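Thread: D-3-phosphoglycerate dehydrogenase, structure

OP (GT): Posting the sequence first so everyone is looking at the same thing. Length is 357 residues per the record. Can we get the structure tokens written out before standup tomorrow? I want them in the notebook alongside the other entries.
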Amino acid sequence: MAGRPVTGELVRPRLVYFERWVDPVAEEILGHRDDVELLRLEYADPLSANWAAMAGAHGYHVQPRTELRGPWFGDSDLLARSPRLLALASTGAGYDYIDVDACTSAGVIVCHQGGTNREAVAEHALGLMLALSKRIAITDRALRRGEPIDRFELRANDIAGKTLGIVGLGAIGSRVAELCAGLFGMRVLAFDPYVDAATARDRHAEKVNLDNLLQQADVVSVHCPRTSETMGMLGAEQFALMRPTAYFVSTARGGVHDEEALAGALRDGRIAGAGVDVFLTEPPPADHPLLQLDSVIATPHIAGVTVEALREMASEAARQWMAVFAGRVPPRLVNPEAWPRYSRRFEEQLGFAPDPL
């Protein structure tokens, strides 16, 4: 932080996290720096000790939803008990378990690691598409159960030249579009209200509305974040628009699609199959309706969990924390509207003013 204008006593910022990073490279980057105090907490430690550590923290790196335990959610209660907090960051691209509005009101910025697992999730989505269209899971199960096999009754489909509908054309959705258009010559339709038609074309897709996408697509692949806009966006009405030969794939977030409605559409033969990596409750119970269907391929939110993606995620998170504590604007800032109040609090806490937004 050399060269920053000092208006008070410089403070060594404290960054806390629970249990472990998704890859130890983050600790290698941050652990030996003299301008950051990296403090590891454990859920099993006394609440009083963890709250005391949190009360003195300037940054909090929040574990993913599946691993995160209460009361350590990024909510208004935690903010009230952590008066020095300047920034929270999610582990991955999703940050729906952090109360962004509460953070903004408190002058706390929120960051995410979007794009760091882009390749991993895009490849997983493509794998689900291929496994569904080639009937890999269904035929594998039939063989393992010792069922009589009629190869022609189990005939599959090619995806080459078919129509792919992508819901959410961000970092991951655009990579899926690129792969499918390039590898298989698929026609790619995209629904994303935050992407204009020209940008969609640059990302190998044709911009359409959601209804048109659902009606035309042979495969629907979901890549949008979970927000108040997208929660429950895909329900019975939307599945009814899909073709009976179409497949539904989601590597986005649980809650974006209605799981009961999806199970109903599959049971009734209104769509051909589904590949789901995300559930509203994770892990889902063994008696979950979707897990009872041979037409479903389910994975436990592992699309972004590859060796390469986790290392990239952790290293980029560490670098983003270094940027935050150096007073720079972080590259994956969620709530820029918090910056004015955050800047005042930053200067009060750390002794120098951050860069203007």
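GT: Both are above now. Quick notes for whoever picks this up: Residues 115 and 171 are 6 Å apart (CA to CA). The radius of gyration is 23 Å.
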